[in-house]
């Protein structure tokens, strides 16, 4: 199944009859534009990690988004999935986005630095999360967000790293 991009630049699911067809369309886009391509970020670093695991995390969701210890329990979230085309545009600098660097803390340990980039399109926010591992980035996830959530992340520990695009 081929994918369809709408006038808004997002995946268009109007021709799909089920979530499975929508998921197939997302997978086709993901394979063609992200996992089979060498994606370089605007700053020249290679972006890796476009795997089936990252795909599943990007298009799925959690009913309890406030408990990060829980795995995603909703296999397909259309609002998240439709925004797949934004990932490569943000990374390549084709869309202007604000970039913040954050320490990554899990289990009381500070790990690799995390890059948080956000775009605002008509008062809608989309966050792409990357882990910085040496001289490459690793895609972590991407999701729609509210302005309040983004500002909370930045206020908590983010350092403005500038604008991409």
- As a whole number of angstroms, the C-alpha radius of gyration is 15 Å
| Beginning-to-end CA distance, first to last residue | 32 Å
Strand order of the largest sheet: 1-2-6-5-4-3-7
Strand content: 25-35%
- The computed structural class is alpha+beta
As residue ranges, the low-confidence spans are none
How many domain modules? 1
**Which sheet architecture does the biggest sheet show?**
7 strands, mixed
Number of strands: 7
Name the helicity range.
25-40%
| Mean pLDDT over all positions | 84
SSE order, as H and E? HEEHHHEEEEHE
Total helical segments:
5
Shape: globular
Quick gist of this model?
30% of the residues lie in helices and 33% in strands. It is of the alpha+beta class.
Verbal overview:
The protein is of the alpha+beta class. It contains five helices and seven strands; from the N terminus they run αββαααββββαβ. The chain has one domain. The protein has helices at residues 19-35, 52-59, 78-81, 84-92, 147-157; strands at residues 39-40, 46-48, 97-106, 109-121, 124-133, 136-145, 159-164.
Provide key terms for this protein.
165 residues; 5 helices; alpha+beta
């Amino acid at each position: 199944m081929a994918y369809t991009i709408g006038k808004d630049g997002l995946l268009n699911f109007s021709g799909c009859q089920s979530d499975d067809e929508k998921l197939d369309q997302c997978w086709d886009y993901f394979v063609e534009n992200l996992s089979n391509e060498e994606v370089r970020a605007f700053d020249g670093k290679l972006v890796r990690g476009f795997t089936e695991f990252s795909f599943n995390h990007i298009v799925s969701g959690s009913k309890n988004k406030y408990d990060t210890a829980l795995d995603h329990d909703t296999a397909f979230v259309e609002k998240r999935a439709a925004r797949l085309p934004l990932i490569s545009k943000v990374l390549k600098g084709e869309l202007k986005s604000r970039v913040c660097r954050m320490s990554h803390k899990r289990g009381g340990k500070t790990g690799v630095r995390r890059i948080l980039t956000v775009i605002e399109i008509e008062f809608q926010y989309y966050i792409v999360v990357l882990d910085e591992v040496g001289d490459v980035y690793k895609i972590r996830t991407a999701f729609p967000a509210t302005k309040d959530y983004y500002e909370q992340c930045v206020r908590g520990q983010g350092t403005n790293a500038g604008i991409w695009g």
